[in-house]
Amino acid sequence: MLVQNSNQLLHRNEPPFRADQVGSLLRSERIKKARLQKTAGDISAEQLRLIENEEISRIVEKQKEIGLQAVTDGEFRRAWWHFDFLENLDGVEGYEKESGIQFHQTQTKSHAVKVVGKLDFTNHPMLEDYKFLHSIAGSHTAKMTIPSPSMLHFRGEIETSAYRDKDEFFHDLAHTYKKAIQAFYDAGCRYLQLDDTSWAYLCSEEQKEQIRARGFDPDELSALYAKTINQAIADRPDDLRITMHICRGNFRSTWISSGGYEPVAETLFDGLAIDGFFLEYDSDRAGGFEPLRFVKRSDLQIVLGLITSKFGELENPEDIKRRIDEASRFVDLNQLCLSPQCGFASTEEGNLLTEEQQWAKLRHVVEIAQAVWK
């Protein structure tokens, strides 16, 4: 079984932490009601923001109470984990499509983004969102989550009037994200997470066929995305920790893709200059831990998403400990952490569990981590 060699294993002083979380939380009923009221014109944008502030303050205190070292705003001001950020970049617009993103047995609302002009990051509203979270985090670490640069290309449309040249687009995309990363740092952020589902698609034979049908070569995309991400995070401040979360879809407790990390493991673990990966590992759709053999850097943290956010039933702690033990055969225990496999509400609709079950899941993560890294 697992062997702990010092008390320093649990008490990491920098992110990702031994017990961590991906980011999104179930929207409270008060938030849902206020959003409907704002849409109907019954309350103003300022009144909605005050309600959001109060609800975010409440859930931040709950995260502290549970024992998490990193706190998030639950993405309470967003409808989507990615589109809200992307459509507020310069040169990007949101629009309504004929259909949404297809998950197994369900489909999202029909929203999307398109690139209509030159990309840039100037006056982005989520800087103020982060500043509020930072102001109430106290001694805890305020964690900001944004979609990876890959997602604008993977989920967005690029109008030829904006970019005809692929290299110019990816150059500007990397530069835009470089500015975004510096702006969040200047606002106080020291823990930034890039959420990226494209890598999971590149692990799935079924999804790679769909990628080819769109006119893209999966291997070329993998190389382009890795290059762009590395360019975006290059020259970041030394005390800024950047992680990446990878999952196979999370909408109303359903999923999109299946397949282990093997096809992209070397590119990810030995090719991206980030500080840690949050990896979905709550079901056999993610495969085994063997791809972790490509983790060569001793400073790279692997956060095992062994606790599901899709359903409320708590996992057997001994089963989770055994799986951490299995992963430690490929990556040193000192480089492993624990979290849910995804957030609890990638979109405002949220997964099919209660808020009480959500908090129980996060408490479960903390308690198991304390038992493992004691």
From TrEMBL:
Uppermost EC category: transferase
Cobalamin-independent methionine synthase MetE C-terminal/archaeal domain: residues covered: 21-370
Species per Swiss-Prot/TrEMBL record: Fodinisporobacter ferrooxydans
Domain of life the protein comes from: Bacteria
EC number per UniProt: 2.1.1.14
Keywords annotated in UniProt: Methyltransferase, Transferase
InterPro entries the UniProt entry points to: Met_Synth_C/arc, UROD/MetE-like_sf
Name of the protein in its database record: 5-methyltetrahydropteroyltriglutamate--homocysteine S-methyltransferase
Any GO BP: methylation
Species classification: Bacteria, Bacillati, Bacillota, Bacilli, Bacillales
CDD domains tied to this protein: CIMS_C_terminal_like
One GO MF term: 5-methyltetrahydropteroyltriglutamate-homocysteine S-methyltransferase activity
